[in-house]
């Protein structure tokens, strides 16, 4: 036969490349004298003669029949192609074999099967399957080849089918079979299958095999069976970092951070060399544990192992330092990274946002874009967080527009971040709109909007959203949902709703969670349910610093200061180091105890532990020293602080104001170069809280004239100021400013303050209008409206609101019951009051406090059931307080019961000997009975004890100016006109049947002539204010008079006659309630 052979010897490759026609053969040994090649049904032997080192020449060719062909050369060639991944060349050889009619034996056929199965091409896999099915006999290698091939393309169902067929065919699995089949069971989440395979592995004696055992470890770890994973790990002979990584990853998956760290530490000790995945996992563990020291150790180790320049590890380092609040190290790692990728930028931007350095996050975002990286859903989410943190609604809306333009606004992650951004900026309506526009919602988006509602105190909307979450989208609440709802209940002191959420937690089986349990402790503490809080705290299997802090704060807030101090010591004995929050609570306890010495001890602890530069501690220290009367220490802490932020400035200004050093406060305020809204709010609130109302209001006017923008908090402070004055005209003007600024429906706190202001200013109708127009009402809003109705004697309206609350998903709390019981008391609804008092304890499980018992005593006493009232006091489960005996004494005054009044008064003289009220009331009771000697005895007793009656002060608002009157005032420019008007009205009143009750002047005026008694009655402060209103305000306008004490009985009678004579509506507010006088009648029905 004629052959054309091309040959080329390449010494550098140490082999021949020979081409016959279009076929390529490898000569494995260049020193061979000959080689064999297959052509059709013959085998040709080519002998070579070497004339030189670089020029071999064929010298002879010998052929023999194909029946004598040895298949081994084909097998070698196919294996070479498999080993070198030269699959196309291997297929060409197979094609030539077919075209030449060569039938391979079982051994060669298995090699060909491997060739096609391993190529990675699906068409080749299908052909391999065809060859496999056509094989008359299949050995274990063939089965393993196909099982592995399907595992490589993730067709795990076919892996399991083939494995089943293989076992049915009588073939036994080996170390190559099990890893693929175990991998398939893992992918199919077939936990039972892994268990069965483990038994087979043990029977085969392969559990010690590195690859088989490693597959089992991976399976157990992925399913969370960590004890089995560790057991299998221990059985393996040899080490593989991949297997150790699987165990670490398994512990990380189930958040068992300590165990994950233990495995990492163990692998280092036995000499297993970590890879980048190991280090990244270990850094994640340190971040989760907030273990900066552990993270530093891992950092040093990875540098020693040569992974400093690994980008994957560098990203993990940034994330770890961010979680450990180590911004300096975080930025250092970022700056030293030689190569950064998109994840790197996302991580550092996210870190800066988490640190609260939102401006820095925005700067890094711009640098990222300048470096050629694009914004994506991850970094945009961080930037939205930064916008929320800066309350930069402008930037947030700009990002929103970017998302809309790039069709990313429907992305669930970014959509949820938008909801979160709008919520944190206080724009819950916009947050709601974005939420509703999302094509898909998850627990994150629900929780973001829920947090917004809670932040704004919109309880109704929050609870409705909670129910929609489950009913509309079928999403089960998670721990963040429940903790947010518990925060809502804590903020509103709504323990009834809190107990319902607790019940939901139990049904959802989420109670055994440290975060949830801690929030339950916090909620019950805030609601005054300290027993519940202690029970949960005591049974917690694990407690962190926040858990201890919540319980300590609970004790402190509920007046159990000594118990708070005891628990603070116990926390340290349990190995928990006090942090800023626990120390803040303890410093607050020192304020409660007025114990500056203990405060100084805590101050020394702070200094010893180098915590003095913590901003919050500086603030609390200044506050503690100031409230304990140690202003020199307060100033020293403030003055030595290097970085004085606006909060510290605010506290120092407030400290000066509260200590009566208003000039020092103003001087410090004036010295500050940067006076922002918060600082203005501080000085406004400081003056207001100290009772310097005029100064506070004047500062507000000064603020309006400056460039500083007032905010919601400013308006809340000034609206509350109008409530305390009260000043309706100012309140109306403020309401207009609020509407103009767009603050309506954006703050439930502000709207509730308006309700309260209008109620206290005598405009109950306006209060109800504001209440009805509120988009979101919380328990405080409902209580303000019900309390307003109660003070105005509108018991019917109060009861209607009370009955409506549960229908709106709002459940009454102890403050609600106090208001509604007071309403019943003011209008004599005894049976209704008794029913509500019983319902409070039995239906709502609210334990009655001293204030509630006082309301019940007042209710029974005013109704004339004095014996029942007395019996109620005697059977109280708690010791009656001053207010309780005071209610009984007041009832005795109304019903002129001198004997029982004497009993109540005696108890009050013992409990509160310096309070002038009981002396005055008892004096009135004696005077009404004509017991003038006893009246004189009371007067002498007050003189001997140094008790002075509080001077009566009344005021009225005329043209936005508060006009103040004391008894007998004669300094007003219209004094003569005021008195003449009163004398004239008195004469007219007498003509209608008015008889002056001169007994009301005997308690504080003596040696007065009988003919002068009526003139003294005209000098009462409330009557002077009323007269000014009559001569100064437009006709037909309502006159509103306010008094700091209970309105005089004679003045009450006279005002009824004056309302009839003048045809004017007169509203008078005293310490007990509002009196609405109209056409000769009072809304109280003389029942006050």
From TrEMBL:
Q: What are the residue boundaries of the DYW domain, all occurrences included?
A: 993-1088
Question: Could you tell me the Gene Ontology terms of the biological process aspect for this record?
Answer: RNA modification
Q: Which UniProt keyword terms apply here? A: Repeat
The reply on keyword Cytoplasm is: no
What Pfam families has UniProt attached to this entry? DYW_deaminase, E_motif, PPR, PPR_2
User: What InterPro entries does the database record attribute to this sequence?
Assistant: DYW_dom (IPR032867), E_motif (IPR046848), PPR_At4g14850-like_plant (IPR046960), PPR_rpt (IPR002885), TPR-like_helical_dom_sf (IPR011990)
The Swiss-Prot or TrEMBL record describes its family as follows: Belongs to the PPR family. PCMP-H subfamily.
Can you say what this protein is called?
Answer: DYW domain-containing protein
């Amino acid at each position: 036969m004629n052959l054309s052979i091309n040959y080329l010897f390449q010494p550098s490759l140490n082999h021949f490349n020979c081409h016959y026609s279009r076929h390529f053969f490898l000569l494995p040994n260049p020193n061979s004298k000959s080689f064999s090649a297959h052509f059709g049904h013959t085998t040709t032997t080519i002998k070579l003669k070497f004339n030189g080192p670089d020029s071999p020449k064929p010298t002879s060719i010998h052929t023999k029949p194909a029946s004598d062909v040895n298949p081994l050369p084909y097998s070698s060639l196919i294996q070479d192609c498999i080993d070198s991944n030269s699959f196309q060349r291997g297929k060409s050889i197979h094609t030539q074999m077919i075209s030449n009619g060569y039938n391979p034996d079982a051994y060669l056929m298995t090699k060909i099967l491997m060739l096609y199965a391993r190529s990675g091409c699906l068409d080749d896999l299908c052909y391999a399957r065809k060859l496999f099915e056509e094989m008359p006999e299949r050995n274990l290698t063939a089965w393993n080849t196909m099982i592995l091939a399907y595992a490589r393309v993730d067709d795990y169902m076919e892996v399991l089918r083939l494995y089943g067929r293989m076992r049915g065919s009588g073939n036994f699995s080996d170390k190559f079979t099990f890893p693929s089949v175990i991998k398939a069971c893992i992918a199919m989440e077939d936990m039972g299958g892994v268990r069965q395979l483990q038994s087979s592995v043990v029977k085969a004696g392969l559990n010690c095999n590195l690859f088989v055992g490693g597959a089992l470890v991976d399976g157990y770890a992925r399913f969370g069976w960590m004890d089995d994973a560790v057991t299998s790990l221990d059985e393996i002979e040899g080490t593989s970092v991949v297997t150790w990584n699987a165990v670490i990853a398994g512990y990380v998956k189930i958040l068992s951070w300590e165990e994950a760290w233990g495995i990492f530490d163990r692998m280092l000790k036995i000499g297993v060399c970590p890879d980048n995945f190991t280090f990244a996992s270990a850094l994640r563990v340190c971040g989760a544990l907030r273990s900066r020291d552990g993270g530093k150790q891992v950092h040093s180790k990875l540098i020693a192992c040569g992974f400093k320049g690994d980008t994957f590890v560098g990203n993990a380092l940034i994330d770890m330092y961010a979680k450990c609040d180590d911004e300096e190290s975080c930025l250092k790692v970022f700056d030293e990274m030689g190569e950064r990728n998109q994840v790197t930028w996302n991580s550092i931007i996210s870190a800066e946002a988490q640190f609260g350095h939102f401006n820095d996050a925005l700067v890094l975002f711009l640098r990222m874009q300048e470096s050629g990286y694009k914004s994506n859903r991850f970094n945009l989410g961080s930037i939205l967080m930064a916008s929320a943190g800066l309350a930069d609604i402008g930037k947030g809306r700009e990002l929103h527009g970017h998302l809309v333009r790039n069709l990313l606004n429907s992305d669930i992650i970014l959509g949820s971040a938008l909801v979160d951004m709008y919520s944190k900026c206080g724009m819950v309506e916009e947050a709601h709109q974005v939420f509703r526009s999302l094509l898909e919602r998850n627990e994150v988006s629900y929780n973001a909007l829920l947090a917004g509602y809670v932040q704004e105190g919109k309880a109704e909307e929050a609870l409705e959203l909670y129910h929609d979450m489950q009913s509309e989208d079928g999403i089960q609440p998670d721990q963040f949902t429940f903790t947010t709802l518990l925060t809502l209940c804590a903020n509103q002191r709504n323990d009834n709703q809190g107990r319902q959420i607790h019940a939901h937690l139990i049904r959802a089986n989420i109670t055994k969670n440290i975060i949830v349990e801690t929030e339950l402790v916090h909620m019950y503490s805030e609601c005054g349910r300290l027993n519940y809080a202690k029970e949960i705290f005591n049974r917690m299997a694990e407690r962190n610093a926040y858990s201890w802090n919540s319980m300590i704060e609970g004790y402190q807030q509920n007046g159990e200061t000594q118990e708070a101090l005891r628990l603070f010591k116990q926390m340290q004995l349990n190995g928990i180091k006090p942090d800023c929050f626990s120390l803040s609570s303890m410093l607050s306890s020192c304020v409660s105890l007025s114990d500056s010495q203990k405060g100084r001890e805590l101050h020394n602890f702070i200094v010893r532990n180098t915590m003095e530069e913590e901003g919050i501690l500086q603030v609390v220290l200044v506050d503690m020293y100031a409230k304990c009367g140690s202003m020199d220490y307060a100033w020293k802490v403030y003055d030595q602080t290097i970085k004085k932020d606006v909060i510290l400035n605010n506290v120092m200004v407030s400290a000066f104001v509260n200590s009566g050093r208003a000039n020092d406060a103003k001087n410090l305020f004036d010295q500050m170069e940067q006076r922002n809204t918060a600082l203005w709010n501080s000085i406004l609130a400081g003056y207001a809280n100290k009772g310097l109302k005029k100064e506070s209001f004047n500062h507000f006017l000064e603020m309006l004239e400056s460039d500083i923008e007032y905010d919601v908090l400013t308006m809340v402070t000034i609206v509350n100021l109008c409530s305390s004055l009260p000043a309706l005209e100012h309140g109306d003007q403020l309401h207009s400013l609020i509407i103009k600024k767009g603050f309506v429906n954006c703050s439930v706190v502000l709207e509730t303050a308006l309700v309260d202001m209008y109620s206290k200013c005598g405009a109950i109708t306006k209060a109800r209008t504001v209440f009805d127009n509120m988009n979101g009402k919380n328990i405080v809003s409902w209580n303000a409206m019900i309390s307003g109705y109660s003070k105005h004697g509108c018991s019917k309206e109060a009861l209607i609101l009370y009955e409506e609350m549960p229908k709106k998903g709002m459940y009454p709390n102890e403050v609600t019951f106090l208001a509604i019981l007071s309403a019943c008391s003011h209008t004599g609804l005894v049976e209704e009051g008794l029913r509500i008092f019983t319902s409070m304890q039995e239906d709502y499980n609210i334990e009655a406090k001293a204030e509630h018992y006082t309301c019940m005593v007042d209710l029974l006493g005013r109704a004339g059931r004095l014996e029942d009232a007395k019996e109620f006091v005697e059977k109280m489960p708690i010791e009656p307080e001053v207010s309780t005996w005071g209610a009984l004494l007041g009832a005795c005054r109304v019903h002129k019961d001198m004997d029982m009044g004497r009993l109540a008064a005696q108890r009050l003289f013992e409990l509160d000997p310096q309070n002038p009220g009981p002396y005055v009331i008892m004096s009135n009771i004696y005077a009404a009975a004509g017991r003038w000697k006893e009246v004189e005895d009371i007067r002498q007793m007050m003189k001997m004890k140094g008790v002075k009656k509080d001077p009566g002060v009344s005021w009225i608002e005329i043209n936005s100016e508060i006009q103040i009157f004391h008894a007998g005032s004669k300094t007003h420019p219209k004094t003569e006109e005021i008195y003449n008007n009163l004398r004239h009205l008195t004469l007219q009143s007498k003509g209608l049947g008015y008889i002056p009750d001169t007994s009301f002047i005997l308690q504080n005026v003596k040696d007065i002539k009988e003919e002068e008694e009526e003139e003294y009655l005209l000098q009462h402060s409330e009557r002077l204010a009323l007269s000014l209103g009559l001569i100064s305000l437009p006709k037909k306008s309502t006159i509103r008079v306010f008094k700091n004490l209970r309105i005089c009985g004679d003045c009450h009678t006279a005002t009824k006659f004056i309302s009839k004579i003048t045809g004017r509506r007169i509203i008078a507010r005293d310490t007990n309630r509002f009196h609405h006088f109209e056409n000769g009648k009072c809304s109280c029905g003389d029942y006050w």
